[in-house]
Amino acid sequence: MNLLDKVQRQLAALETQSLTRRRRIAESPCAPRQTVDGRPMLAFCSNDYLGLANHPRVVEALREGASLYGAGSGASHLISGHSRAHALLEERLAAFLAPNLVDARALYFSTGYMANLAVLTALGADADAMIFSEALNHASLIDGARLARAGVSVYPHGDVAALAAQLEASSASTRIVVTDSVFSMDGDLAPLPELLAVCERHGAWLVVDDAHGFGILGAHGRGALEHFALHSPNLVYVGTLGKAAGVSGAFIAAHAGVIELMVQRARPYIYTTASPPAIAHALLASLDIIEGEEGTALRAQLAALIAQLDASLTLTRWQRPVSHTPIQPVVIGANEEALRVAASLHAQGLWVPAIRPPTVPANTARLRITLSAAHTVEQVAQLAQAINQLEAL
Fold first, then answer.
1. Active site residue: 82, 138, 212, 255, which one?
2. Fewest C-beta in 10 Å: which of 15, 116, 265, 359?
3. Nearest of 380, 360, 378 to residue 139 by alpha carbon
């Protein structure tokens, strides 16, 4: 009972600080209009940036994949679970990223978290390696750095000069710089061209987690590397397939030698059952949309909605970090007020989450608004009006 008492005290402490997290149950497909806990809601909280999670072509491809390959893979990739669908997806992703990578090859993972753990523990497997991690990196990158045998040095957010000084002072035989491309709580972009120049000057890898950029950034949706027109053998790219691509999983794309090292060394890849082949089959349909004319139109629609929200929010008390991505935060400050505002929006049928520490720094609790190309002009106007009115109270 003493153990359970301690657990209850920990839970009570979270409740006292307004830090308790609660799940809601979505009863319909991921879309702007959803049924949640039995009531209709207008959602501004998913990462389905292009509206592909319930796209008819993608849904049909998932059905087709299940009929071709069954429900599961049965084993890890290196035993018997690597299907033709997985192989085709990896080939397609490598070709998609080839303009930005040298001798590109791709490796598919079940989740983005696993991909980030894999890349840092494999590249940073030696004790004489050093990982240089951006201060605002995603939790999966932080955990990957902790699990690696390499040392870890954190550089301030977006501070290329500080990173350069750290690299200059390091005697590590392998140096790995790792950063988000689009930061998930602020929506801002990392200075990737400057980071890559520093990495090339010091012979370091640049690992880019493009979870919120893949499919969105760049003329063809190739992500942050295309957006900044980057091309280098020093690049190691992680892309997520459960956000703009609308399905599930992630991948690492890099020089073929780096990917072969992942196959041989990356424990999150080696020691887990491969994802269902039907998922990979559905993702081929997602990539068709992202690369094609429809993808171009969806990105244009999304950009217009981002501009509309930016022009419509007239806040004076709450803060809005500059973001030109679908992630549009409204920083409120105190946990209690952020929860109150989110609850008020929820009462109006608007689903916008309140994000609190430790996900964001103390006293920066916020609404994390995410837009999708599937939203309408009228829906974005409704959200902006509701937030403006709440701030004025």
1. 212
2. 15
3. 360
